[in-house]
Amino acid sequence: MSVIESRKSSEVNFEKEVKLSAPITEPFTWEKLQDIIAAGEFTLFGRSKEMLDKYKAWRNRVTLLFETTTDHIANAVFAWELVQNETGLFKVVYPNAQRNRYVFRPNSFPYHVEDGIFHYVLWAENGVLSKEAIEHELSVQIPGHPYLYFVNPPERQTIPRLKHCHVFWKSLEKRTPRAKIEVCVDSVASAKSAIEGGAHRLELCSALSEGGLTPSFGLAKSVIRHSTVPVFALIRPRGGDFLYTDDEVEVMCEDIRMLDKAGVDGFVIGALKRDGTVAVCVVKKLMAECGDKPVVFHRAFDMSRDPMEALEVISSLGIKRILTSGCASSCMEGIPLLAKLVSAAHKYNITVMPGGGISEDNVAEIVDKTGASEIHCSARAVFKSNMLFRRQDVHMSSIVVKCDSEFETKLASSDRVRAIISSLDN
Questions:
Q1: What is the pLDDT of residues 165-183, one digit of tens each?
Q2: Phi, psi dihedral angles at 404 (to 5 degrees)
Q3: Which of 98, 205, 227, 419 could serve as a FRET partner for 394 with CA atoms 20 to 30 Å apart?
Q4: Residue 65 per-residue DSSP state
């Protein structure tokens, strides 16, 4: 038997062997989909009459143009090259090397489901479609969205060479989140991971090890280029306290001008006087440079002498959000004051956003006990360096560190962001 004949014989002729379901008049609800998949009664799935007619017409065209259905799908989904055989029909050229690609795309002829439910297909180019592979791909493609999936049994697989599963999922865009998640990032890699994990907004900085400093123009441009969520830039010229000299204020003003040109969506600022009160004149000068873009008052707030007084002053300046740990080393320790601040903030039309030591283990408790509608976290994990040669006797920091730390990087983890969101949802 030739390769072509073998390949054709391995495919089910869906015209004769896979009986199409009758048109469905009532769309499937989410609950009905769950019941059918749980029972394994996949023959109950079907399309509306209009969609069924379109599917039949497509099937007839495929028969006229392509040697097999596999040839058409392999070209349409994976872009495998097509050639014509002696009969004039098209067939694909199988790649020499196996490629480990998955393609997640809408079903061109979806089953009849309710509005708000999407019918997609996950295709596996290498033919491996394990439960683990499916759930990993879906966690990347539709993070945080509820989904259902099934793989047809062999007798109903019209294209067995190209393994695939049917996926139903619901968008959460219309759902009001329990709390919005802002993730603090200091690299492009962290920004991408935070967005992939479901972050609603980014606070962009550099040197998180210093508590965060002003990001560079280049970093801001790169992150904005990749971001699908708002990016707020931290304006902090150095570590240490928040009492700034005239020169440092001018540096911050210039940074705001440059980062505004980079395209950031807002700014995170803050300054104090020697006595621990808000440096109103400095903040006003920085806000003037920010123009119409929204402004957040950062954790200089936590170093103020009277947080309730600072809340009133900051709100009077037109600032709409304050980042705070509740004047404590972490939000868990600051819960009593955070709850008081969140309650008082309604009076001043300002949002109090807890930030400091928030993780998937404590976020639900913090939100429950404070009533916060937004939270701030870094959601970082340690990633090992890819360096092969490692000099262990030289350190880039004056701080005494363990020998491997020069070859480790802390980056935002998409898995941790998802875990934080999941903790809130649950």
A1: 999 998 765 455 689 999 9
A2: -85, -10
A3: 205
A4: H
Please say if the pLDDT value at position 21 is more than 80.
Answer: no
Q: Which residue has the tokens 């983890």?
A: 413
Instruction: Tell me how far apart the alpha carbons of residues 20 and 108 are, in angstroms, rounded to a whole number.
Output: 16
Q: What is the number of other CB atoms lying within 10 angstroms of the CB of residue 114?
A: 13
User: What gap in Å lies between CA 408 and CA 385, rounded to an integer?
Assistant: 5
CA dist., res. 120 & res. 97, Å (int): 27
Own/partner pairs for 244-249, CB < 8 Å, 24+ apart?
A: 244/271, 244/279, 244/282, 249/282, 249/285, 249/286
What average pLDDT does the structure give for the chain? 86
The tokens describing 364, both together, are 């639900």
Does the pLDDT of residue 25 top 80, yes or no?
yes
**pLDDT tens, position by position, 183-228:** 999 999 999 999 988 899 999 999 988 889 999 999 999 999 889 8
Residue 21, Cβ density class (10 Å: 0-12 exposed, 13-18 middle, ≥19 buried): middle
Q: What is the pLDDT of residue 235?
A: 98
The residue among 308 and 73 whose pLDDT is bigger is 308
**Beta-carbon count within 10 A of 10 CB:** 12
* Residues written for the chain: 426
- In contact, 364 and 181? CB cutoff 8 Å: no
Query: Which pLDDT value is given to residue 402?
Result: 53
Q: Could you tell me the two tokens for 178?
A: 């329990």
- Tell me if 201 sits within 8 A of 178, measured CB to CB: no
When pLDDT is cut at 50, 70 and 90, the band that residue 20 belongs to is low
Spatial contact of 62 and 72, defined as CB atoms under 8 Å apart: yes
CA distances from 247 to 122, 289, 360 (A): 57, 16, 40
AA identity, residue 230: P
Q: Which residue has the tokens 């969520």?
A: 229
pLDDT of the residue at 338: 96
The whole-angstrom separation of Cα 12 and Cα 8 is 8
Q: What are the helix (H) ranges across 198-230?
A: 217-226
Stated as kind and residue range, the H or E segment containing 332 is none
Rounded to the nearest 5 percent, the helix, strand and coil shares of the chain are 40, 20, 40
Query: Rounded to the nearest 10 degrees, how much is the dihedral formed by the CA atoms of 248, 250, 255, 258?
Result: -160
Angle, CA of 32, 33 and 39, to the nearest 5°? 90
At residue 97, the pLDDT reads: 61
Contact between 357 and 329 (Cβ < 8 Å): yes
**Is residue 264 within 8 Å of 233, Cβ to Cβ?**
yes
